Amino acid sequence: MRAVYFEEHGGPEVLRLGEVPTPEPGPGEVLVRVEACSLNHHDVFTRRGMPGIRTPLPMVLGCDGAGRIERLGTDVQGWAVGDRVLVDPLVGVTGMIGDTTWGACAEFVRVAAEQLIALPDRVDPVTASCLPVAYGTAQRMLVRRGEVRQGDAVLILGASGGVGTACVLLARALGAEVTAVASSAEKCARLRAIGAHHTIDTSTEDIVAYTRRTTGRLLSGGGFDVVVNFTGGDTWAPALRCARKG
Fold first, then answer.
1. DSSP calls for 29-64
2. pLDDT digits (tens, 9 = 90+) for 132-187
3. Within this chain, do residues 201 and 92 fall inside the same structural domain, yes or no?
4. What range does the domain containing 165 cover?
5. Is the CB of residue 20 less than 8 Å from the CB of residue 106?
6. Do 135 and 215 form a contact (C-beta atoms < 8 A)?
7. Closest CA to 196 of 212, 176, 221, 215
8. pTM for the model
9. Domain count, the chain
10. Which of 129, 152, 168 is the last residue of a domain?
């Protein structure tokens, strides 16, 4: 099969488009004919190499894929050849397609049957392939972790990326008042266009100063109900200082 793969970590120049062996589904596995695969920044991380994560080489990229079941392995129940499916990229507890096992930037991808999500007829494969990494991450942060409710004030850092825009859209759908953070006026304008009530342009304003100016000091009840920060690093401590007490 044709695939996008790399044999060593590095920049974009290590990527190859070529022929690799088509995987065979084992017990409990299926082979999916890929119709769409989206790109995520995670693909860049994997290509470069991430500390503490061993990527077996060669690696076929692609965390998010959708298509139709091509072949069933033994012991697979409830699925049939031709079924339209979206692939949950997570493999067990620590694995991920396109990272620790071959991914969906290929004509076919082999996954466990437990990773399959049935696609309704109204959802096309291109739309579906944009969902798992970005929207799955956003949904877990906002709903399961943040427990965002109607009327909550939510601050979203890194809002102009894939996960960030997903957070903006989902927070709005949950009825929150959304303040989105980005690094330029152009990005902020685009975030307001997709639904952010307020924006912070970090090229001109500090998020902690903005929080104090618009919500009050933390010791006086200021801050946001939920602060979304999926990048960490230098933004971690300032983000904590934007969260309302409790």
1. EEEEEEEEEE--HHHHHHHH--TT----SSEE--SE
2. 999 999 999 999 999 999 999 999 999 999 999 999 999 999 999 999 999 999 99
3. no
4. 133-240
5. yes
6. no
7. 176
8. 0.86
9. 2
10. 129
